Amino acid sequence: MSIHEHLPPQARKELKEIGWTKGRELAKLARAEGQRFDCAPWVHKARSMPREEFMREVEKELTGKETEPSELIYFKVYQSQIPVIEQAIETAARMLGTDKSRGYCLEMICADFLAGAHLDNGNPEILLNSISRYYKFLPGEQRQAFLENLRAKAS
């Protein structure tokens, strides 16, 4: 019902063809833009784009930010493993900033593991990638201090 309430009549007619998921995304745009919402180009995009790409396009329109394609990954963990996993993700979130997603925190935990695993006779590209990812999180003054430290050690 919410989709029907927020979409203009011409978009409602197309709803069956474009599907409910894309219709929900159109309704988000219609709510955000109100009377300014020009549905024709968005209905065309909904018809012609794959669902995930259309959802990213709507997200970009609403937030002004480009989003990366994502995928849900499922794997089994035992009840006894959950506290360790949760604690690691919570710790990473505190270190990285609580606004980071759980997936991002897991990626950083894995990058840290890979960096440690490849310190001795491992793949230096993996280590370099891990260090580069961490460098991005440093505030400006710490980035500068890090670079100066590197220069001093290289001399």
Structural features, described:
This protein is an all-alpha fold and 155 residues long. The chain folds into two domains: 2-63, no CATH class; 79-154, no CATH class. It is built from nine helices and no strands. Helix 6 (82-96) packs across helix 7. The relative contact order is 0.06.
Gyration radius, rounded: 23 Å
How would you state the average pLDDT, rounded? 82
Number of domains: 2
Low-confidence segments: none
Q: Which overall shape is indicated by the principal axes computed on the Cα atoms?
A: elongated
Helix content: over 70%
Number of strands: 0
Major sheet size, sense and barrel closure: none
Count of alpha/pi helices: 9
The end-to-end distance, rounded to whole angstroms, is 68 Å
Question: What string, H for helix and E for strand, traces the elements in order?
Answer: HHHHHHHHH
Provide the structure class: mainly alpha
In terms of DSSP E residues, the strand content is: under 5%
Annotation keywords:
9 helices; mainly alpha; 155 residues; elongated; 71% helix
Summarize it:
This protein is 71% helix and 0% strand. The chain has helices at 2-6, 9-18, 20-33, 39-48, 51-63, 82-96, 102-117, 124-135, 140-154.
Topology:
Layout: H1 2-6, H2 9-18, H3 20-33, H4 39-48, H5 51-63, H6 82-96, H7 102-117, H8 124-135, H9 140-154
